[in-house]
Design brief:
Length: 210
Amino acid sequence: MYKKLLLAFVSIIAIQTAKAQTEKGSQMLGASFGFSTTSSNTKALNPSDNSYGPNVHGKTKSYNIAPSYSYFIADKLDLGVSAGFGGSSQKFADIQNQKSRGFNSSIYLRKYFLYDNKIGIRTGPYLSYESITQEYSYNPIIKTHNDIYGGGIGLDFIYFPVKRLGLAARLGSANYYHQKSDDNTQGTSNSFNLAFVNSLSLSVNYVFGK
């Protein structure tokens, strides 16, 4: 009888510990890291004799980092904000001809669907803003500035290996962006994107509070 009571007590403590990570009143600090690289090999066609020129190698790298904070307004439902910095560079024929850097921020609402309160997915809507400056290596160097407003739905894989520590990876998203350019060719553009595991984006989260 004593062993059964002890086992029941330990089970209750374990359940409450797991639940505490995503229960109402808990808070979460996080940091996300993203990196992607793309390589290409192209040959230009000469229409005068239908011949191809030499092979040209191109490479694009991009990165971002963003700390975040969220508060669980209900069990397995958090409301949060993030702000970060990112950039990219593109090399074409061993000459750097484009680079960009900028600030990004977002506000989001996420619902958690977990198995055994440890592993599962989280998803929900978000709104974002980005301010990006681009530099083109022409002569003279040309700089442009873009403001990008967006919104959509994100999908993450989430895993809590130990108490209060969570690991997450972006699985996909559906989003809409409105871009405003402020340069020699002023204008706006709109785009809709649907992505699923097309780049590496990881985050580490620490839960504290209730």
